[in-house]
Write a structure and sequence with these properties.
Elements: H1 6-9, E1 12-15, H2 31-36, H3 38-44, E2 48-51, H4 79-91, E3 95-100, H5 110-117, E4 129-130, E5 145-148, E6 153-156, H6 171-186, E7 191-194, H7 232-244, E8 250-253, H8 260-265, E9 274-275, H9 291-304, E10 313-315, H10 324-328, H11 335-346, E11 350-354, H12 374-379, H13 421-426, H14 431-444, H15 446-450, E12 452-455, E13 462-469, E14 472-479, E15 485-486, E16 494-499, E17 507-508, E18 513-518
Parallel strand pairs: 1-2, 1-11, 2-3, 3-7, 7-8, 8-9, 10-11
Antiparallel strand pairs: 4-6, 5-6, 12-13, 13-14, 14-18, 15-17, 16-18
Helix pairs in contact: 6-7, 11-14
The structure holds 1-deoxynojirimycin (NOJ).
């Protein structure tokens, strides 16, 4: 494809390293495991891998609590393995995106150990210490302040108490964190996913957040002083200048409760390339899923992301949320998963595919005593945590789904004997093969990647839109209903590019999907 820009036109595949493939039989996935499946990913047709954290960590938040930014946790491998992973991925045309968690460190990071050692410690001001806490709440439950008896002060943590927030207002901290970018750029990384980036800066005076209606204490305040402070922008400018001193580097920010307007404002040629808008994700398994709901969401996003500087992202699943196939499907029926995959790969925006989404992996269900995730332990049974979407990748029907030779850190989904990569590869009608075909079409037709989005009027139960670029028009039509429906494609000669329907162009029975091109 001409002018192919990998982070705009390509598809990014998220790997949660501890759950993808275990090469050394310790029950935990690792970098060598990922390397051994790069051919699989190249064959699938993705363009980049986002690696959730692989750095040394005490695992209080499963890697999102980092104790050394410039190394690999020995359980996942070594820096040499990381270099091999980047080089092997690059040989296959796959880019690497590292997850940087820079709002907080682990409490085991040497910076924090030094900071908490005494009131006069050289790095005392690298974290946020106060004599008296304000009313801020941690999003994983409880107050956002932890009392440190030896020094008689409280430190701020927006997540668990083992994840102290760093003080981004301290210039030394800023320099040290920019060095983290430099370090990984030096190791060949092509891009970064910035964890909760809009929480880096807090209001300098740490005022109380004003109250509002909500269920949890966290939701009962307006988060106007703990996130989205104006000082964020100069930092984004500085970071972007650094990235732009390398060819085609990328940064996508994970927004933390940001409004759509704020999210868009963080994107542009002198700031982030993209910021997540979680339009199609939810913690609620009973969330609506019908064409009207989907189109409303899409149109809201289209309006917000109207600026040429803000390229949207599409996310259906990730390591924090129930998998899309679990939200929208009943049992093992993949009809809804096909629809979700079509949206993921044909809406306007960079698709972020979560490992296993291509085979429709479902969430696992855990008993209370099996839960590992801190917010799950805290809020069970109202909220059961995020372990459900982090189960081992289902490669084949051998013991432990071909993920490991030993009992994995989380159980494999019991459906793995039927639902696995091997079985779906062999079935021409599987979600895997459908996904692969869509990925091939994206490479062939720029309209599907960077084209405009034009909604079409359809009968109830259907969803249809055009993607248009230059003189290329691709029509995407989906039947969400249980019955037969159809619609005449707009005037012109339409050729079928991909269809799960045996009928003619425009005729779709329950759950069927068609992609047509205007000749
Ligand atoms: C967002 C990450 O996606 C999540 O997994 C993590 O727990 C929090 N940030 C804290 O780092």
């Amino acid at each position: 494809m001409k002018d192919f820009l990998w982070w705009r036109d390509g598809v990014i595949y998220q790997i949660y390293p501890r759950s993808f493939a275990d090469s050394n039989g310790d029950g935990l996935g690792d970098l060598n495991g990922i390397i051994s499946h790069l051919d699989y990913l190249a064959d699938l047709g993705i363009d980049a891998i986002w690696l959730s954290p692989f750095y040394p960590t005490p695992d209080k938040d499963f890697g999102y609590d980092i104790s050394n930014y410039m190394d690999v946790d020995p359980r996942f491998g070594s820096l040499a393995d990381f270099d091999r992973l980047t080089s092997e991925a690059h040989q296959r045309g796959i880019r690497i995106i590292a997850d940087l968690v820079l709002n907080h460190t682990s409490d085991q990071h040497p910076w924090f150990k030094e900071s908490r050692s005494n009131l006069k410690a050289a790095k005392r001001d690298w974290y946020i210490w106060r004599d008296h806490p304000n009313n801020w709440q941690a999003s994983f439950g409880g107050r956002a302040w932890e009392y440190d008896a030896p020094t008689g002060q409280y430190y701020l943590h927006l997540f668990t108490k083992e994840q102290p927030d760093v003080n981004w207002r301290n210039p030394q901290v800023r320099t040290a964190l920019l060095d983290v970018f430099r370090f990984w750029l030096g190791h060949g990384v092509d891009g970064f996913r910035l964890d909760v980036f809009n929480a880096y800066f807090k209001h300098a005076d740490l005022p109380d957040n004003p109250p509002k209606f909500g269920l949890r204490a966290f939701d009962r305040q307006r988060h106007i002083y703990d996130i989205d402070q104006p000082e964020m922008m100069p930092f984004l400018n500085e970071m972007r200048t650094l990235l732009d001193s390398y060819p085609e580097r990328y940064a996508v920010g994970e927004t933390y409760f940001a409004s759509p307007q704020k999210t868009v404002s963080y994107c542009g040629p002198d700031r982030l390339h993209a910021a997540f808008s979680f339009d199609f994700t939810s913690n609620d398994l009973n969330y609506p899923w019908n064409p009207r709901w989907v189109m409303e969401r899409v149109m809201k996003r289209e309006v917000n992301f109207i600026s040429a500087d803000a390229w949207p992202t599409t996310v259906m699943s990730n390591h924090d949320l129930p998998r899309a196939a679990s939200r929208y499907s009943r049992g093992e029926d993949d009809t809804q998963a096909f629809l979700a995959m079509t949206l993921l790969l044909t809406l306007r925006g960079t698709p972020f595919m979560y490992y296993g989404e291509e085979i429709g992996m479902r969430n696992i269900h855990l008993r209370r005593n099996e839960i590992l995730d801190p917010p799950g332990k805290k809020y069970w049974p109202i909220y059961k945590g995020r372990d459900g979407c982090r189960s081992p990748m289902q490669w084949d029907d051998s013991a432990f789904a071909g993920f490991s030779s030993q009992k994995p850190w989380l159980p494999v989904h019991p459906d793995y004997m039927k639902r696995n990569v091997n079985s779906q590869k062999a079935d021409p009608d599987s979600l895997f093969n459908f996904t692969k075909k869509l990925l091939t079409l994206r490479r062939e037709f720029p309209a599907l990647c960077r084209g405009d989005f034009v909604p079409l009027e359809t009968p109830p139960g259907m969803l249809a839109y055009l993607r248009r670029s230059g003189d290329q028009s691709v029509l995407v039509a989906m039947n969400f209903s249980n019955g037969e429906t159809g619609f005449p494609p707009p005037s012109g000669q339409w050729r079928v590019l991909l269809s799960t329907s045996k009928g003619s162009a425009g005729a779709l029975t329950a759950g069927e999907i068609q992609l047509l091109i205007l000749e």
